[in-house]
Structure formats: C-alpha cells, structure tokens
Design goal:
mainly alpha, about 5% strand, binds zinc ion
C-alpha cells in the first residue's frame, strides 16, 4: 500500500517539500523559510503578526495559558525551540512577582520541564 505524503511548495523559491505528517511538513517548511528566506520571514512578521501564533506565542498568550492550568500552558510551550523559548522565558519571568502563587508554581514547573527538554536535544 502506498503511503500518502503531504507535499507543499515554497512560495519564494519553488522548493518542494514532502513529509509523512502534516506537522513534519510544516516544520520542514518553517526551517527552510528561516534558513533561506529569513529577511522575508522577518518582514512578514513585522507586517502585522504581532498578535502571536501557536508556534510563536506572546507573553500575554503564555500568561493566559498559565491561568488555565499546567496542561494548557505546557501544550502551548512544549514545542517552542530554544531561541524563542529563551526570549519568552525572560519575558514571562519578569511577570513572576505579579503572578498568583499557584500560577507562579505552574510557571516554575513549566520552566523545569522545558529546560529538561532542551538539554535532551
Ligand atoms: Zn524557498
């Protein structure tokens, strides 16, 4: 039986992508875009995506997720790569003094989990 593959084409250079999963395809595309079309990506982000996305959450998104509980917050943060996570960690940590104690605890747990994840890579 033939396995169905997900395919896509780069809008900038026409490079073709293939992957067995949608998530795999998206991550390949993201990697390619940052590697070969960094300027275009930055311009595109500047052009009005300040609201944040699932893989580039804002501090506000993280704080909201923390308020919803550990599983929600962890799901949001789990897939972030190191450079983004580093920035976000600093930014969210600056809100720590203003967090409710139970939210601060959740944030501490997230940091612990995330730092273990990063070390394994
Ligand atoms: Zn390309």
């Amino acid at each position: 039986m033939k396995t169905r593959m997900f395919t896509a084409k780069c809008s900038q250079c026409g490079h073709r992508f293939r992957a067995y999963t949608r998530a795999g395809l998206l991550s390949n595309i993201r990697e390619h875009m940052w590697k070969y079309h960094r300027k275009w990506m930055l311009a595109r982000m500047k052009a009005g995506r300040l609201a944040g996305t699932a893989d580039n959450p804002t501090v506000g998104m993280v704080l909201t997720a923390i308020a919803q509980g550990l599983p929600v917050a962890l799901a949001l943060i789990r897939l972030l790569r190191k450079p983004r996570w580093d920035k976000l960690e600093v930014a969210v940590s600056s809100f720590e003094p203003y967090m409710k104690p139970e939210h601060r605890e959740i944030w501490q747990s997230i940091k612990a989990v995330k730092n273990i994840d990063i070390r394994r890579r």
